[in-house]
Amino acid sequence: MSKALGGFENLRVLIVDDERSVVKILRMMLANIGVTQIFTAKDGVEALEFLGACDEMVNTVICDWNMPRMSGIKLLEQVRTTDPDMAFVMVTGRATLEAVYDAKSLNVTAFVAKPFSQDEIKKKLELVARRVSDQESEVRDQISDERRSGA
User: Fold this and answer.
1) How far, in Å, CA of 65 to CA of 51, rounded?
2) Residue 45, CA distances (Å) to 8, 12, 25 in order
3) What distance in Å separates the CA atoms of residue 86 and residue 74, rounded to the nearest whole number?
4) Angle at the Cα of 110 (from 48 to 120), degrees rounded to 5?
5) Could you tell me what percent of the chain has a pLDDT over 90?
């Protein structure tokens, strides 16, 4: 197994997009680079419901900007209220300076512009995988420290 694949196996990704074809393509791309835990939601409302019930199952969200019922930026805003550190990748066809500023102000992890390639997704997820790995290492260290101090 390659080094890149080794990092992606720890990602637990929720794809949020109202276009079934985009979900299918992203799911295939993620599987091709080694992501094995992939969940989907058709919009921000469904994603919030999933995260509310199963937030421990997900450490990364890949989300479309424009969706019915709840936009990607609104979902990002909601996610940040409960999980300020979750990796959040925004997929958009409207990468205006204002849109980028709005998402950056909510601590978006990365942007992917439509149309995108598997290589672009892989590059963004390499950054995400390092961030997730660092966060999980910090949690393990905290648990280990607590056990030592409690013993």
Assistant:
1) 18
2) 27, 19, 22
3) 15
4) 115
5) 58
Place of tokens 């919009």: 43
**Residues pairing with 14 in the sheet:** 39, 61
DSSP string, 122-151: HHHHHHHHHHHHHHHHHHHHHHHHHHHHH-
Pull the structure tokens for residue 105: 């102000």
Q: Is the pLDDT of residue 5 over 70?
A: no
Q: How many CB atoms are closer than 10 A to CB 54?
A: 12
* Short-list 81, 84, 86, CA closest to 57: 86
Model confidence pLDDT, tens digit, residues 48-90: 999 999 878 899 999 999 999 999 999 999 999 999 989 999 9
